[in-house]
Amino acid sequence: MSRYQRIVILTGAGLSAESGLATFRDKGGVWARYDYREVATPEGFARNPSLVHEFYNMRRRDLKTVAPNAAHMALARLEQEHRGEVLIVTQNVDNLHEAAGSTSLIHMHGELLKVYCTHCRKGCSWTDDLTTELACPSCGKSGGMRPDIVWFGEMPYHMDVIGEALEQADLFISIGTSGNVYPAAGFVAEARASGAHTVELNLEPSEGRSFFHEAIHGPATRIVPGFVDSLLAG
Ligand code: OAD
After folding, report:
1. pLDDT in tens, 164-176
2. How far is CA 25 from CA 33, 130, 139, 213, in A?
3. Which residues contact 180 (CB under 8 A, 6 or more apart)?
C-alpha cells in the first residue's frame, strides 16, 4: 500500500502528446504555428473573434479523433485503486482524463467542450463549432459566445481549491508540462513548502526541474504506468 495519503497531480500537454494532440512549446508545437496574442487573449478575441473561433473549432474537432493513452489510463487506475485521495489538476483543455475514467479532476485552464456567453455569463457543454453569429441558448443574444478557455491575462479556475489541496498534499507529481506558465509552474514550490515529496515525470527536464526532489524522464506512456505501479505497490 502506498505511504502517501493525499496525492496532487499536475498534468500538461505532454500527457496528451502520444494521443496525437500537439504540445505548445515543443518544436512544431501550437505556439510555433500560431501567435498566442491573436488566439489566446481577450484582446485577440475582441480584435478578431472569427480567427479565435476557427482556432478552437479545429482543436474541438480534433477531440473526435483521439483517445486516452496508457498514461491517462494509469492515472485513472491510481484514483480507483489508491486508498487515499488523488486529485488531478490539469492545464489541458482536452477531455482525455475524463475519457480514461478520472473523476477527481480540475480543469484549471478551462475545457474545449464548454462554452459561455459573455453577455449573460451562462455556460454549457458544446461539441460543435462556434460562430460569431451564434445565439446564446440562455439569453438569446448573438455575438457573445466564446470557448470556456482561460486565456492569457485571465484567472485560472478553482485556485482556492487547488491551493488547499497543495497545502495538504504529501505527494505532488507534475507530468508533461514545461513549467513555463504560472500559476501552475509555481505549484511544485507551494507543495514542497508544505512538506510534500515532489516528482517530475516529463520527456525531458522542465524549466522547474531543480524544484523537484525526484525526476523521471521519458515518454509519458512508458514512465507514468510504471510510476503508478510502484506507487500502488508501496
Ligand atoms: P508545453 O508545450 O509548454 O510543455 C509540454 C511538455 O511536455 C514539455 O516539457 C515536453 O518536453 C513534454 N512532453 C512532450 N511530449 C511528451 C511525452 N510524450 N511524454 C511526456 N512529456 C512530454 O505545454 P504545457 O506545459 O501544458 O495554456 O503548457 C502550459 C500552458 O501553456 C497550456 O495549458 C496552455 C499553454 O499556453 C493556455 O492556453 C492558457
Report:
1. 999 999 999 999 9
2. 10, 26, 38, 24
3. 25, 207
Tell whether the model's pLDDT for residue 179 goes beyond 70: yes
pLDDT over 70 at 1, yes or no? no
Query: Which is nearest to 80 in space by CA: 97, 102, 63?
Result: 102
pTM surpassing 0.90? yes
Q: What is the pLDDT of residue 198?
A: 98
DSSP class per residue in 47-115? H-HHHHHHHHHHHHHHGGG----HHHHHHHHHHHH-SSEEEEEE---SSHHHHHT--SEEETTEEEEEE
Number of Cβ within a 10 Å radius of residue 116: 19
Query: Which residue, judged by its Cα, is nearest atom 8 of ligand 1?
Result: 178
Amino acid at position 26, single letter: D
Mutate to test the pocket of ligand 1, among 41, 148, 187, 202 (most ligand atoms within 8 A of CB): 202
